Amino acid sequence: MSTLDAAETGSAPGVGAGSSDTPPPPEQSAETALSRTLQRIARGDLLVVVMSFVFAFVIGSVLIVIANQEVRETLGYFVARPTDALGAIWQAVTQAYGAMFRGAIFDVPGFQRTAESIREAGGSGTYVLLPALATGLRPLTETLTVATPLIIASAGMAVSFRAGLFNIGGTGQLIAGAMAAGYVGFTFDLPVAVHLLACLIAGVLAGGVWGGIAGFLKARFGANEVISTIMLNWIATYLLFFALKTAAFTGANQSQPTSPSVGENAALPLLLGSGFRLHAGLFLAAGAAVLLWWLMSRSTIGFHFRAVGSNPRAAQVAGISPARTAFLVLAVAGGLVGLAGAVHVLGTERRLTEGVAGSIGFDAITVALLGRSGPVGIVLAGLLFAGLSTGGRFMESNQGVPLDLVQVIQVLVVLFIAAPPLVRTLIGLRRVDHPGARARVRRARGAQQGGAVAAGAAATAATVADDARRSPAEAEDADPDPGPATSGERSGERDGPPGPDRPEQPTDAQEEER
């Protein structure tokens, strides 16, 4: 390529898009489908949840080993016979978690024992299978029974969390709903469907009023919902203690701080007969999850809740009142938690006691946070916590492992799930939290180097184009090396231009005139 051609095309020889001598830059290889799938798994929540359980149970195993007396004895002569200590550690951990599985999901020894006893009595076929399955699945039914009010209460907590309000009043709202439902249940005598429906509605209204009190205080006076809901918890707790000492709630049995049992027409029907505690509240728990999905994803009021939770100022500019929305959020959340209290009394407890709420109110907060305030996550987290609770009780009675260990495992699970970067760091995926960081740095450096190369190429092309446009005379005048110079010229170049200290040197014509 000639110089003039390079000037016309605006690029230097061998540089730029117009050059055919330089090969195009190599294309980056596309990511395979497998690598993309692995990256999605690494960045997703499922891996974090699974590894959180793994780490929590590993730490729980260490605590089980420390608490086991036989393991501590074998560690005393570990150097002499290490196999004894290792065998004791393995046995302690596997038996403890095996007992937790038996108490939460399926009792394999109970299944086998029931089947063998029926066969010895002459039974066969379904006469053996059905009773054996009933025995084996009894722990699962207990897990579902415990999870039922927990899921409903967690749905109420999720409403407030997604609206940007941290509702701590689950215990008070649950007690209010349980008191109202229980009172209607053991005081009035109504037809079957009417009585049960009246009890459930009373529980929802009582919980909604109790949550609405905190909402009104926040909307009208700007009171912090955390403080107000905590105080309302204590008010409801001591109000229950007082009510159980009155004739209205205690009835004829005033020596015991318990209420009469709810009527048969007010109790939730049992799903598997009198031998199991699983009741129809399970369907209400599923309905609460569906209601949460519809309310927060498909309804107008749910859109208002989410808008206020995301940006209150922008919602106010759009015409949504944050104060009124706060009141509605806590009232709706309280209504759902009150329904959980009603279901717990009408289905499981069947009467009011001082400990009727248990830890459901505070566990619901953890379940809602663990489930990311979504319906599917809440259902799974509720089943998990219920399984840990029922399995932990069986583990304590069967293996002597303290029940407090289950609480430690629950706290560790929540801790790890709340810190995904920690989990990814522990499994060696710390870079996933900053995807493409190194690639962006390399691209930035490449862009800088490419910019420098492009700038140099542009400068070279401009110089060549300028030389091509000049006339031969101008090019000769501009030539930095015009030829051999005389000694005077070289001397003048060395001496520099004339100045006040050095007079101007005469030319050859002036010398001839002289």
Overview of this structure, please?
The protein has 514 residues and is an all-alpha fold. It has a domain at 141-370. It contains 24 helices and no strands. Helix 9 runs antiparallel to helix 10 (192-221), helix 9 packs across helix 16 and helix 13 packs across helix 14. The two termini are 57 Å apart. One of its GO terms (cellular component) is plasma membrane. InterPro entries: ABC_transp_permease. It is found in: Cell membrane. It comes from Brachybacterium saurashtrense.
What order do the SSEs take from the amino end to the carboxyl end, as H and E? HHHHHHHHHHHHHHHHHHHHHHHH
Mean pLDDT: 82
Roughly how much helix do the residues carry, as a percent range? over 70%
Please tell me what the overall shape is: globular
Please write out the topology.
Layout (H helix, E strand, L loop, with lengths): L2 H7 L23 H11 L1 H23 L1 H7 L6 H23 L3 H13 L5 H11 L1 H25 L7 H18 L4 H30 L3 H19 L3 H4 L30 H17 L2 H11 L1 H6 L4 H28 L10 H11 L4 H25 L4 H14 L2 H7 L10 H33 L2 H6 L9 H9 L12 H6 L1
Helix pairs in contact: 1-21, 3-19, 4-5, 5-18, 6-7, 8-13, 8-14, 8-16, 8-17, 8-18, 9-10, 9-11, 9-16, 9-17, 10-11, 10-16, 13-14, 13-16, 13-18, 17-18
